[in-house]
Protein backbone atom coordinates (compact mmCIF):
# COMPACT_ATOMS: atom_id res chain seq x y z
CA UNK A 1 0.00 0.00 0.00
CA UNK A 2 1.38 3.42 -0.98
CA UNK A 3 1.76 6.04 1.76
CA UNK A 4 -0.84 8.49 0.35
CA UNK A 5 -3.45 5.72 0.23
CA UNK A 6 -2.59 4.61 3.74
CA UNK A 7 -2.78 8.18 5.09
CA UNK A 8 -6.12 8.70 3.40
CA UNK A 9 -7.47 5.46 4.84
CA UNK A 10 -6.42 6.41 8.32
CA UNK A 11 -8.04 9.82 8.10
CA UNK A 12 -11.33 8.34 6.91
CA UNK A 13 -11.41 5.79 9.70
CA UNK A 14 -10.45 8.34 12.33
CA UNK A 15 -13.19 10.71 11.20
CA UNK A 16 -15.71 7.88 11.23
CA UNK A 17 -14.75 6.26 14.52
CA UNK A 18 -13.86 9.27 16.64
CA UNK A 19 -16.09 12.03 15.24
CA UNK A 20 -17.45 14.43 17.85
CA UNK A 21 -21.11 15.52 18.01
CA UNK A 22 -21.72 18.32 15.44
CA UNK A 23 -22.45 21.81 16.63
CA UNK A 24 -25.91 21.68 15.07
CA UNK A 25 -26.89 19.14 17.66
CA UNK A 26 -25.84 21.30 20.63
CA UNK A 27 -28.51 23.48 22.34
CA UNK A 28 -27.24 26.74 23.75
CA UNK A 29 -26.99 26.81 27.53
CA UNK A 30 -30.09 27.95 29.47
CA UNK A 31 -29.73 29.86 32.64
CA UNK A 32 -31.81 29.04 35.66
CA UNK A 33 -32.68 31.07 38.67
CA UNK A 34 -30.85 28.81 41.04
CA UNK A 35 -27.59 27.92 39.31
CA UNK A 36 -25.19 28.08 36.40
CA UNK A 37 -26.26 27.37 32.88
CA UNK A 38 -26.68 23.75 31.85
CA UNK A 39 -26.14 22.41 28.38
CA UNK A 40 -28.65 20.02 26.91
CA UNK A 41 -28.89 18.42 23.53
CA UNK A 42 -31.78 19.03 21.24
CA UNK A 43 -33.43 15.93 19.87
CA UNK A 44 -30.44 13.69 20.79
CA UNK A 45 -31.51 10.10 20.84
CA UNK A 46 -29.89 7.48 23.13
CA UNK A 47 -29.37 5.07 20.24
CA UNK A 48 -27.33 7.52 18.20
CA UNK A 49 -23.87 6.77 19.62
CA UNK A 50 -24.24 2.96 19.39
CA UNK A 51 -25.40 3.40 15.81
CA UNK A 52 -22.34 5.48 14.99
CA UNK A 53 -20.11 2.83 16.61
CA UNK A 54 -21.76 0.05 14.58
CA UNK A 55 -21.39 2.04 11.39
CA UNK A 56 -17.73 2.62 12.13
CA UNK A 57 -17.16 -1.09 12.77
CA UNK A 58 -18.75 -1.94 9.44
CA UNK A 59 -16.56 0.59 7.67
CA UNK A 60 -13.48 -0.87 9.33
CA UNK A 61 -14.38 -4.38 8.20
CA UNK A 62 -14.86 -3.12 4.64
CA UNK A 63 -11.66 -1.11 4.68
CA UNK A 64 -9.68 -4.02 6.17
CA UNK A 65 -10.83 -6.16 3.24
CA UNK A 66 -9.74 -3.42 0.87
CA UNK A 67 -6.39 -3.29 2.63
CA UNK A 68 -5.93 -7.04 2.24
CA UNK A 69 -6.92 -6.99 -1.43
CA UNK A 70 -4.79 -3.96 -2.10
CA UNK A 71 -1.92 -5.58 -0.22
CA UNK A 72 -2.18 -8.72 -2.32
CA UNK A 73 -2.37 -6.67 -5.54
CA UNK A 74 0.61 -4.59 -4.57
CA UNK A 75 2.63 -7.69 -3.72
CA UNK A 76 1.79 -9.21 -7.10
CA UNK A 77 2.97 -6.15 -8.96
CA UNK A 78 6.19 -5.84 -7.01
CA UNK A 79 8.02 -8.60 -5.16
CA UNK A 80 5.20 -10.83 -3.81
CA UNK A 81 5.59 -12.41 -0.40
CA UNK A 82 3.32 -14.93 1.29
CA UNK A 83 1.36 -13.91 4.38
CA UNK A 84 -0.82 -15.99 6.64
CA UNK A 85 -4.17 -15.89 8.37
CA UNK A 86 -4.36 -14.32 11.78
CA UNK A 87 -6.54 -12.58 14.33
CA UNK A 88 -6.61 -8.81 14.39
CA UNK A 89 -7.00 -7.14 17.80
CA UNK A 90 -7.14 -3.40 18.31
CA UNK A 91 -5.75 -1.57 21.29
CA UNK A 92 -7.80 0.93 23.31
CA UNK A 93 -6.20 3.66 21.24
CA UNK A 94 -7.51 2.13 18.04
CA UNK A 95 -4.27 0.63 16.66
CA UNK A 96 -4.45 -2.71 14.85
CA UNK A 97 -2.32 -5.44 16.43
CA UNK A 98 -1.12 -8.03 13.90
CA UNK A 99 -0.12 -11.38 15.48
CA UNK A 100 3.59 -12.34 15.35
CA UNK A 101 3.20 -15.00 12.62
CA UNK A 102 1.91 -12.27 10.33
CA UNK A 103 4.14 -9.36 11.25
CA UNK A 104 7.18 -11.58 10.84
CA UNK A 105 6.46 -11.93 7.14
CA UNK A 106 7.43 -9.26 4.62
CA UNK A 107 4.50 -7.33 3.22
CA UNK A 108 2.15 -8.01 6.11
CA UNK A 109 3.37 -4.93 7.95
CA UNK A 110 1.24 -2.83 5.58
CA UNK A 111 -1.69 -3.78 7.81
CA UNK A 112 -0.05 -2.68 11.04
CA UNK A 113 -1.19 0.64 12.43
CA UNK A 114 -4.49 0.83 10.53
CA UNK A 115 -6.85 2.79 12.84
CA UNK A 116 -9.92 0.99 14.10
CA UNK A 117 -12.49 1.30 16.84
CA UNK A 118 -10.89 0.79 20.25
CA UNK A 119 -11.30 -2.69 21.64
CA UNK A 120 -12.56 -4.32 18.42
CA UNK A 121 -11.40 -7.90 17.94
CA UNK A 122 -12.04 -10.02 14.88
CA UNK A 123 -10.60 -12.69 12.60
CA UNK A 124 -8.74 -11.57 9.53
CA UNK A 125 -7.94 -14.03 6.75
CA UNK A 126 -4.96 -12.68 4.93
CA UNK A 127 -4.35 -14.29 1.55
CA UNK A 128 -1.08 -15.59 0.08
CA UNK A 129 0.98 -14.03 -2.65
CA UNK A 130 0.15 -14.94 -6.24
CA UNK A 131 0.27 -18.69 -6.71
CA UNK A 132 2.47 -20.41 -9.26
CA UNK A 133 2.72 -24.00 -10.41
CA UNK A 134 5.91 -25.87 -9.60
CA UNK A 135 7.29 -27.27 -12.90
CA UNK A 136 6.93 -31.00 -13.45
CA UNK A 137 10.24 -31.44 -15.27
CA UNK A 138 12.64 -30.44 -12.49
CA UNK A 139 13.68 -34.03 -11.82
CA UNK A 140 16.76 -34.74 -13.92
CA UNK A 141 17.76 -31.09 -14.25
CA UNK A 142 21.04 -29.76 -12.97
CA UNK A 143 20.90 -27.87 -9.68
CA UNK A 144 21.74 -24.55 -11.35
CA UNK A 145 19.08 -24.87 -14.03
CA UNK A 146 16.34 -25.97 -11.60
CA UNK A 147 17.20 -23.12 -9.20
CA UNK A 148 17.00 -20.63 -12.05
CA UNK A 149 13.61 -21.99 -13.17
CA UNK A 150 12.16 -21.63 -9.68
CA UNK A 151 13.70 -18.20 -9.12
CA UNK A 152 12.02 -17.02 -12.33
CA UNK A 153 8.69 -17.99 -10.75
CA UNK A 154 9.46 -16.10 -7.54
CA UNK A 155 10.33 -19.20 -5.50
CA UNK A 156 13.35 -19.72 -3.25
CA UNK A 157 15.47 -22.88 -3.15
CA UNK A 158 17.78 -24.76 -0.82
CA UNK A 159 20.07 -27.70 -1.66
CA UNK A 160 20.09 -31.11 0.03
CA UNK A 161 22.55 -33.78 -1.11
CA UNK A 162 21.31 -37.39 -1.01
CA UNK A 163 22.84 -40.72 -1.98
CA UNK A 164 22.05 -41.42 -5.63
CA UNK A 165 23.19 -43.06 -8.83
CA UNK A 166 22.53 -39.94 -10.93
CA UNK A 167 25.45 -37.66 -11.86
CA UNK A 168 26.62 -35.16 -9.28
CA UNK A 169 24.15 -32.33 -8.47
CA UNK A 170 21.35 -33.66 -10.65
CA UNK A 171 17.91 -33.07 -9.07
CA UNK A 172 16.35 -36.34 -7.88
CA UNK A 173 13.57 -35.08 -5.58
CA UNK A 174 11.67 -32.11 -4.14
CA UNK A 175 10.72 -31.26 -0.55
CA UNK A 176 8.17 -28.67 0.49
CA UNK A 177 5.96 -28.65 -2.59
CA UNK A 178 5.49 -31.49 -5.07
CA UNK A 179 6.05 -31.00 -8.78
CA UNK A 180 2.87 -29.89 -10.51
CA UNK A 181 1.35 -28.41 -7.32
CA UNK A 182 0.63 -24.73 -6.73
CA UNK A 183 2.24 -22.62 -4.05
CA UNK A 184 2.56 -18.96 -3.11
CA UNK A 185 5.45 -16.96 -4.47
CA UNK A 186 8.25 -16.52 -1.99
CA UNK A 187 7.89 -20.12 -0.78
CA UNK A 188 11.05 -22.19 -0.31
CA UNK A 189 11.51 -25.51 -2.09
CA UNK A 190 14.29 -27.93 -1.15
CA UNK A 191 16.01 -29.48 -4.17
CA UNK A 192 17.36 -32.94 -3.40
CA UNK A 193 20.41 -33.55 -5.58
CA UNK A 194 22.48 -36.67 -6.16
CA UNK A 195 25.92 -36.95 -4.58
CA UNK A 196 26.75 -39.72 -7.07
CA UNK A 197 27.81 -42.05 -4.23
CA UNK A 198 25.83 -45.02 -5.58
CA UNK A 199 26.01 -47.28 -8.62
CA UNK A 200 23.69 -49.94 -10.03
CA UNK A 201 25.16 -53.42 -9.52
CA UNK A 202 25.48 -55.27 -12.85
CA UNK A 203 24.76 -58.94 -13.48
CA UNK A 204 27.95 -60.97 -12.93
CA UNK A 205 26.62 -64.40 -13.96
CA UNK A 206 29.07 -66.74 -15.75
CA UNK A 207 31.95 -64.26 -15.49
CA UNK A 208 35.30 -65.03 -13.97
CA UNK A 209 36.12 -62.94 -10.87
CA UNK A 210 38.61 -60.90 -12.87
CA UNK A 211 36.05 -60.12 -15.56
CA UNK A 212 33.48 -59.31 -12.87
CA UNK A 213 35.82 -56.76 -11.28
CA UNK A 214 36.24 -55.08 -14.66
CA UNK A 215 32.50 -54.85 -15.20
CA UNK A 216 31.98 -53.44 -11.70
CA UNK A 217 34.72 -50.84 -12.15
CA UNK A 218 33.13 -49.72 -15.42
CA UNK A 219 30.00 -48.60 -13.54
CA UNK A 220 31.80 -46.89 -10.66
CA UNK A 221 32.76 -49.57 -8.13
CA UNK A 222 35.99 -48.70 -6.30
CA UNK A 223 37.28 -52.20 -5.48
CA UNK A 224 39.44 -54.72 -7.35
CA UNK A 225 39.46 -58.47 -7.96
CA UNK A 226 41.41 -59.10 -4.75
CA UNK A 227 38.65 -57.48 -2.69
CA UNK A 228 35.88 -59.71 -4.09
CA UNK A 229 34.84 -62.34 -1.56
CA UNK A 230 34.65 -65.67 -3.41
CA UNK A 231 32.57 -68.54 -2.03
CA UNK A 232 33.26 -71.84 -3.77
CA UNK A 233 30.31 -73.90 -4.94
CA UNK A 234 31.31 -77.50 -5.73
CA UNK A 235 30.49 -78.81 -9.17
CA UNK A 236 31.30 -81.81 -11.32
CA UNK A 237 31.01 -79.78 -14.55
CA UNK A 238 34.50 -78.85 -15.74
CA UNK A 239 33.06 -76.14 -18.05
CA UNK A 240 31.91 -74.13 -15.02
CA UNK A 241 35.18 -74.12 -13.09
CA UNK A 242 36.17 -70.61 -11.99
CA UNK A 243 32.95 -68.92 -13.14
CA UNK A 244 30.30 -67.09 -11.11
CA UNK A 245 27.02 -68.96 -10.65
CA UNK A 246 23.83 -67.71 -12.28
CA UNK A 247 21.53 -68.43 -9.33
CA UNK A 248 21.42 -69.69 -5.73
CA UNK A 249 23.94 -72.49 -5.08
CA UNK A 250 25.28 -74.61 -2.23
CA UNK A 251 28.59 -73.83 -0.59
CA UNK A 252 30.34 -75.30 2.41
CA UNK A 253 29.27 -73.47 5.58
CA UNK A 254 31.35 -72.70 8.65
CA UNK A 255 30.33 -75.95 10.29
CA UNK A 256 31.18 -77.95 7.20
CA UNK A 257 27.55 -78.43 6.24
CA UNK A 258 26.27 -77.17 2.90
CA UNK A 259 24.38 -73.84 2.94
CA UNK A 260 22.60 -72.04 0.12
CA UNK A 261 23.68 -68.53 -0.89
CA UNK A 262 22.79 -66.19 -3.78
CA UNK A 263 25.11 -66.04 -6.75
CA UNK A 264 26.08 -62.42 -5.95
CA UNK A 265 25.62 -59.90 -3.17
CA UNK A 266 24.44 -57.14 -3.65
CA UNK A 267 21.98 -58.49 -6.22
CA UNK A 268 22.06 -57.36 -9.82
CA UNK A 269 20.04 -54.22 -10.49
CA UNK A 270 20.24 -52.92 -6.92
CA UNK A 271 21.80 -49.54 -6.09
CA UNK A 272 24.82 -49.83 -3.81
CA UNK A 273 27.57 -47.62 -2.44
CA UNK A 274 30.64 -47.46 -4.65
CA UNK A 275 32.76 -48.82 -1.79
CA UNK A 276 30.46 -51.76 -0.98
CA UNK A 277 31.91 -55.25 -0.49
CA UNK A 278 31.06 -57.76 -3.23
CA UNK A 279 30.49 -61.47 -2.57
CA UNK A 280 30.11 -64.01 -5.39
CA UNK A 281 29.58 -67.76 -5.59
CA UNK A 282 32.19 -69.26 -7.89
CA UNK A 283 32.01 -72.80 -9.21
CA UNK A 284 34.96 -74.92 -8.22
CA UNK A 285 35.95 -78.56 -8.42
CA UNK A 286 34.07 -80.68 -5.98
CA UNK A 287 36.33 -81.79 -3.13
CA UNK A 288 36.15 -85.36 -1.91
CA UNK A 289 37.68 -86.93 1.18
CA UNK A 290 40.00 -89.81 0.34
CA UNK A 291 38.74 -92.97 2.10
CA UNK A 292 40.92 -95.18 4.25
CA UNK A 293 41.54 -98.89 3.49
CA UNK A 294 43.13 -101.56 5.69
CA UNK A 295 46.03 -103.40 3.99
CA UNK A 296 45.45 -107.12 3.56
CA UNK A 297 41.81 -106.76 4.62
CA UNK A 298 40.03 -104.46 2.14
CA UNK A 299 39.20 -106.39 -0.99
CA UNK A 300 39.32 -105.07 -4.53
CA UNK A 301 35.55 -105.21 -5.13
CA UNK A 302 34.83 -103.23 -1.97
CA UNK A 303 37.54 -100.70 -2.79
CA UNK A 304 36.14 -100.09 -6.28
CA UNK A 305 32.61 -99.67 -4.96
CA UNK A 306 33.64 -97.16 -2.27
CA UNK A 307 35.83 -95.10 -4.57
CA UNK A 308 33.07 -94.78 -7.15
CA UNK A 309 30.45 -93.98 -4.52
CA UNK A 310 32.35 -91.02 -3.07
CA UNK A 311 32.80 -89.55 -6.56
CA UNK A 312 36.39 -89.99 -7.71
CA UNK A 313 36.46 -90.37 -11.49
CA UNK A 314 40.17 -90.82 -12.33
CA UNK A 315 41.27 -93.94 -10.45
CA UNK A 316 43.83 -96.51 -11.62
CA UNK A 317 44.10 -99.97 -10.00
CA UNK A 318 47.55 -101.58 -10.11
CA UNK A 319 47.53 -105.31 -9.67
CA UNK A 320 50.66 -107.01 -8.37
CA UNK A 321 51.20 -110.61 -7.56
CA UNK A 322 50.72 -113.29 -7.25
CA UNK A 323 49.52 -112.93 -3.67
CA UNK A 324 51.86 -115.32 -1.96
CA UNK A 325 50.77 -116.21 1.55
CA UNK A 326 50.52 -114.60 4.01
CA UNK A 327 49.26 -111.93 1.54
CA UNK A 328 45.60 -112.10 0.68
CA UNK A 329 44.72 -112.19 -3.00
CA UNK A 330 42.89 -109.03 -4.29
CA UNK A 331 43.46 -107.16 -1.04
CA UNK A 332 44.56 -103.53 -0.56
CA UNK A 333 48.25 -102.70 -0.53
CA UNK A 334 48.61 -98.89 -0.92
CA UNK A 335 47.30 -95.65 -2.49
CA UNK A 336 49.30 -92.93 -4.32
CA UNK A 337 48.43 -89.39 -5.40
CA UNK A 338 46.65 -88.66 -2.09
CA UNK A 339 46.59 -89.73 1.50
CA UNK A 340 43.63 -91.16 3.38
CA UNK A 341 41.56 -88.34 4.95
CA UNK A 342 42.72 -85.66 2.47
CA UNK A 343 40.13 -83.50 0.68
CA UNK A 344 41.07 -83.33 -2.97
CA UNK A 345 39.25 -82.45 -6.21
CA UNK A 346 37.04 -85.25 -7.46
CA UNK A 347 39.02 -85.52 -10.71
CA UNK A 348 42.45 -85.84 -9.08
CA UNK A 349 44.33 -88.84 -10.55
CA UNK A 350 44.97 -91.48 -7.88
CA UNK A 351 46.39 -95.01 -8.05
CA UNK A 352 45.38 -97.89 -5.77
CA UNK A 353 47.59 -100.97 -5.60
CA UNK A 354 46.14 -104.38 -4.69
CA UNK A 355 47.35 -107.98 -4.68
CA UNK A 356 46.56 -110.14 -7.63
CA UNK A 357 45.51 -113.73 -7.72
CA UNK A 358 47.00 -116.45 -5.60
CA UNK A 359 49.96 -118.33 -7.12
CA UNK A 360 49.07 -121.02 -9.58
CA UNK A 361 49.32 -124.58 -8.36
CA UNK A 362 52.93 -125.79 -8.57
CA UNK A 363 54.37 -122.28 -9.05
CA UNK A 364 57.38 -121.23 -6.92
CA UNK A 365 56.31 -119.44 -3.69
CA UNK A 366 57.56 -115.93 -4.54
CA UNK A 367 55.83 -112.57 -5.03
CA UNK A 368 56.60 -109.88 -7.59
CA UNK A 369 56.26 -107.06 -5.06
SSE sequence, one letter per element: HEEHEEHEEHEEEEEHEEEEEEEHEEEE
User: Cα-atom Rg, whole angstroms?
Assistant: 49 Å
Q: Percent helix among the residues?
A: 10-25%
Q: What characterizes the major β-sheet?
A: 3 strands, antiparallel
Structural class: alpha+beta
- For the biggest β-sheet, the strand order reads 4-3-5
Mean pLDDT: 77
Q: How many strands appear in the DSSP assignment?
A: 22
**What's the tally of helices?**
6
Strand content: 25-35%
Spatial separation of the terminal alpha carbons:
121 Å
Low-confidence stretches: 16-29, 37-44, 61-127
Structural commentary:
By secondary structure, this protein is α+β, with helices and mostly antiparallel strands. It folds into four domains: 3-30 and 38-124, no CATH class; 131-196, Trypsin Inhibitor V, Chain A, CATH 3.30.10.20; 200-285, Trypsin Inhibitor V, Chain A, CATH 3.30.10; 288-355, Trypsin Inhibitor V, Chain A, CATH 3.30.10. The protein has six helices and 22 strands. The protein has helices at residues 3-17, 48-77, 100-103, 143-152, 209-218, 300-310, and strands at residues 26-30, 38-41, 86-90, 96-97, 121-124, 131-133, 156-162, 171-175, 182-184, 188-194, 198-200, 229-235, 249-252, 258-261, 264-265, 271-273, 279-285, 287-289, 315-320, 332-336, 343-345, 350-355. The strands form nine sheets. Strands 4-3-5 form a three-stranded antiparallel β-sheet, with no helix packed on it. Strands 7-10-8 form a three-stranded mixed β-sheet, with helices on one face. The protein has a three-stranded mixed β-sheet with strand order 12-17-15, with no helix packed on it. Strand 1 (26-30) and strand 2 (38-41) form a beta hairpin. The chain is rod-shaped and about 145 Å long.
Amino acid sequence: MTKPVEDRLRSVLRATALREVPDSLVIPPRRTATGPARMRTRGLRPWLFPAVAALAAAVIALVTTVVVVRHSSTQHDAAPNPVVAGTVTTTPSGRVLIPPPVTALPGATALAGVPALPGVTGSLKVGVGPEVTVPRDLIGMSLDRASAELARLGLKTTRQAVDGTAPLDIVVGLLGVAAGRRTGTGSTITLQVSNNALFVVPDLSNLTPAAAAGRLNAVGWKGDVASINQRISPTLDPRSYGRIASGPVLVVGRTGDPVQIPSQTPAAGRPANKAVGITVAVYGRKLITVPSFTPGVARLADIQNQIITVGFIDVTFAIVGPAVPPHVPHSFISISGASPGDQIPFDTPITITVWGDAPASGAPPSATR
